[in-house]
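Let us walk through a complete example step by step. Step one is to write down the protein sequence. Step two is to encode the small molecule, magnesium ion, as a SMILES string so that its atoms and bonds are unambiguous. Step three, shown after the inputs, is the structure prediction itself.
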Amino acid sequence: MLRFIAPHIRVENVRQLSLDWLRELGLDALLLDVDCTLKEYRAEEVTPEVAAWLGELRAAGIGLCLVSNGMGRRIERFAGRLDLPFVSKAMKPLPFRLRSTVRKMQFDPSRTAMVGDQLFADVLAGRLARLVTILVRPIHPEQEPWFTRLKRRPERALLKWTGSASLTTTPL
Ligand SMILES: [Mg+2]
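Step three: the predicted structure of the complex.
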């Protein structure tokens, strides 16, 4: 059961997922959570550093798609500014929208990772969809709504428990 919420890989932030490392890991597509993963919860845009990282991956042919539980218009505007495909109201931790996105985008599921900041949404959904899962440390989680913050304490406890076994720094 635990393995469903243990990420394959943990990183501090998305920018650590360099092109070289993704290639080493055998990944050529990323489904990206938005809030607290690519940007602060209340921010409307990514930092220039994250924009540069996205641009570098895209230029190298890494498939990218935003997959957020957030509402349509807000995510649509965000995706529009980055010129990235998106799925809103993704209903993570359910895996269905992840699976349909991988199909629609014609990504190879065995070479696709779900990247996000929440065990009980991003990692669980990614695991259930049989994707590689990458957990990032949330950016400014104190800005999140109360129902998301409620999940943070059990998340931290579980992460301690699943521990460094999930911290992969070598190819999968
Ligand atoms: Mg998030």
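Step four is interpretation. The radius of gyration is 15 Å.
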